[in-house]
Structures are given as C-alpha cells and as structure tokens.
Amino acid sequence: MYRYYFLAPDLMGSEVNDRALPPLKKRRDDDTNTDESVEETDRVVVAPPPSNVTKETKKRPKKTVRIADSDPVVAMETDTIVSHHSHSTVHGQVFVMGQGDTGQLGLGEDMVERKKPHPVGGALEGLRVCQVECGGMHTVALTGEGKVFTWGCNDEGALGRPTNSEAEAFTPGLVDRLKGVKIVQVSAGDSHTAALSEAGTVYGWGIFRDNNGAFGFLPPPSPPTPSPSPHIIYSAPNKALKITSGCDHMAIVTEHGDIYTVGRAEQGQLGRIAECFSSRGGRKGISLLLKPDVVRVRVKRKADKPKFTDAFCGSYQTFAVTEKGEVYAWGMNNYGQLCTGDKVDSFQPILLKDGWIGGRGQGRVLGVAKKFGISSGQHHTVVCCGGDVLTCGRKEYGRLGLGEESEEPGVPALVESLKGVKVASVEAGGSCSFVVTETGEVYSWGMGTNLQLGMSDDEDVWTPQKVTGKKIENRKVLSVSVGGQHTVLLVSGDGE
C-alpha cells in the first residue's frame, strides 16, 4: 500500500508550503534533500539473501519456466503457493482522479486532469483487476490472472517495460518480462515497483533515491544504474508472504515471521541500520542497504522474539504487527507520525506501548482488532482499529481530518466525524487521507491542490467528505491508493 508521495522537502521538521511546489515531469530532487543540486553518481542495485527452510503449504505440480540468458527474470521451481490476508480475492475496474502530466492517470496524452473518478480503459478493458497501487508518479495494476500492468513516469525504469517515450507512458501496458510468473501482490514507491510471485519470490525494478540522488537498486557487482526490467530481489526458502513500499524503501514479510527491508535508510526506515551507516552504508558500503536483510528486535530471551505477520510502509516509516497483535514502528518521526508520543526518529523497532492511541490501550489490543491497518504519509499517519479511524502527525492542509481549529495530537486521536461509519481500510497520501467503508463508500480530506480528493474544486478539506461522481454511482469502492499527484480506486459493480 504505498503511497505517500507529495513532493515536499520539509522532512527534517522545517515548515514550508507544500502547496507551492509545482508538478514536476521528472522528479530529480528527493523530499529530504536540503541541497539545491543533486548528485547522481553513487548508484547501485538486489540479490536474494539466504535464509531458513520453509515448510510446504499448498501443493501444486512443479513447473520450471526458462527465459533467455539476457532476460533478468529467472522463474523459480516451486511446489508451494504462498498466501496472506492482504492478497486481494476480489476484482474490479480501475478509476483515477487528480493530475497526470507524466501519464500516471492512464487516460492518454489528451486527458491529464480529472476532478472526479474516471475509468481507465485501453489494455485494462475487460480485465479482472484485483489490486492497483500508486507510485510517486506512476501506477501499477495486478489482474486476477497474475499479470502486471504499468503506466506513468518511466524515466528511471519504474514501469518495468519499454515505452515509446523514454520518460513516460500515458496508457497501461503489460510488464511482459514477467511472463510465466504468476504475481499475487504488487507495491510501488517513488521510482520503483515490486511484485510478489505465488512462489514467494520478490521481483523489482526501478531505482532507490536518497538525499544525494539516485543510488541504485541491485547490490554490487550490478551496475549502479536504474533497473528498467524485473530482477529477483528476494528469493529464499523462507518465502515472502507480503511486500509493501515506502518512497524509497521496501519491507518483506516472510512465512517464518521475519521482516526483511531494503532501500534508503537515512531516516531509520529500514529498522536495521545504525544512524552512522544510514547514508549509503558508510564504510560498510552500499550493499548494506541494497541487500535485503532481517530486522532484529532486541529481546532478553530467544523465546521472546516476535513473529511478525504484517507490515505497512509509510513514506519514510515502517510499522509491523506481530502474531500477538503487538505493533512496532521505526523511521522518521519529526511530526510524531510514528505514534510514539515524541518527535524523535528511530533507527530500530520501538514497541508501541500503553497510551499510544489516545489512552485507549496497548498496541496488542489494536493489532488483533478485526479491522486493523496503518497507512503513513510523509508527515502523518492514519490508523484503522476495529472500524474507528485515528490520526496523528502534522495537521497542515487538513490531512488529519480533525478540523481546522484542532491541535496536533501527541498520539493518534479519534476522527470524530467518522464515528458510526464502519471503516474497512485507510490510506495516507503525502498531504491527504482516505478511508474506504465496509459498504464501499470512500471519504477523503486534506490538501486539494492536485485534485486528488475527488472534490469539485481544489480547496483544502479539513474533515472527511464523501467522494462522489456519476461514473461510480451505485458502485462499491474496494480500495484506494494515493500517489504524488493522483489517486486510483478499484471499483466493483456495473453502476446499474
């Protein structure tokens, strides 16, 4: 669930006007960069780490897919199929709204702005789409048959396929290098995309960026350049069950209850790199960041080691949930978006204890709620707990949904205007927020400048408002994802 990419450079706590930043066709400066110029020299790219042996779950015939030596994708032999509750089992049609000057709306070169949800056709026409995700300036769709389609900005290989223009694609296209590999989940960041196969292998393409610009995607000896086609970035007996992306990092949940992270580390988002090595690995080298490795939690006894069952990446944060329902967090916290009650970045996992949710109880209680999820933007976090919605972090432009006169809460505060609304999922953008209800309605609030909210104008919205539109009347919204300037909805039904 990605998604949180409005380009605002105030990550270190200084106040700036997010709205003043113009849409960029090619994003070169990173959100956290404090320099005016960006160096793009130290690029580098993600080989799978070895791990433990996994037990088999669901049997299927062995199958090997052979691909030419020049092709970076190597399909693995498998006799198991992985599963996770986050894998979508429903399907629908893709709708978009917002701005799309680099093609991220997928509506063609002549339609780069929509105030209300509009269906995406082209290569997606008639397909059963089960998941759709926004990157910073691109979009990824997954079909029920396991095929991946992409569109939008491609200047750093985020689409994973050749395009007529080197920089962008205005309509959906198939990532055909994954032919023969069935994908069950996708995730997307500012300039990267990842795909999880039914065999528990993670593929990825694009590039990661930090304060000094692009620094690579695969570890040495791979060249320090963008990866325009899918590569295996994680493949081990300890199979991957779920993937999630932030702006420039990823988290992988495995069947043994581990979490692997890879990518940018400067704000602590990997949870396994000390601050002194967070800038491109320091003296240990770039491989420290670009080889997925396990996030370790300090415990007194080995028996106390937590088994993770879920993870959620924010722009520069990561949240993880254990099988006991405990919630851990790490990463950037300059506005209190980690829900820890302070504003100190964390480079290692922190257990969210009593009171972190407005005095309502422990992380344990939250994590085992029937409806539980976390989505974190650049400077704020939205939590769904048992149907309630809570927010914390920076309040500018209304992204918390607490009203214009509200204060910034030290811990997540209940969004009172959604009381009585049964919320199924939440989504945080860079400066906006969304919820999807159990009945398939969607509400939005926050900054309206890029028309991402689905309202009739570009005004900021300080409390949740229902998203409406003729093309989604009498239809059920299944999910929502937010990019830097656009929003995508997965919608079921035929509107009759």
UniProtKB/TrEMBL annotation:
Stated name of the protein: Regulator of chromosome condensation
Domain spans labelled RCC1-like: 93-489
InterPro entries per the UniProt record, alphabetical: Ran_GTPase-activating, RCC1-like_dom, RCC1/BLIP-II, Reg_chr_condens
GO cellular component labels: cytoplasm
Record key words, sorted: Guanine-nucleotide releasing factor, Repeat
Domain of life: Eukaryota
Location of the region described as Disordered in the Swiss-Prot/TrEMBL record: 16-64
GO molecular function, one term: guanyl-nucleotide exchange factor activity
One Pfam entry name: WD40_RLD
Segments annotated as RCC repeats: 92-145, 146-199, 200-256, 257-324, 325-387, 387-439, 440-493
Coiled-coil ranges (or none): none
Organism listed in the record: Geodia barretti
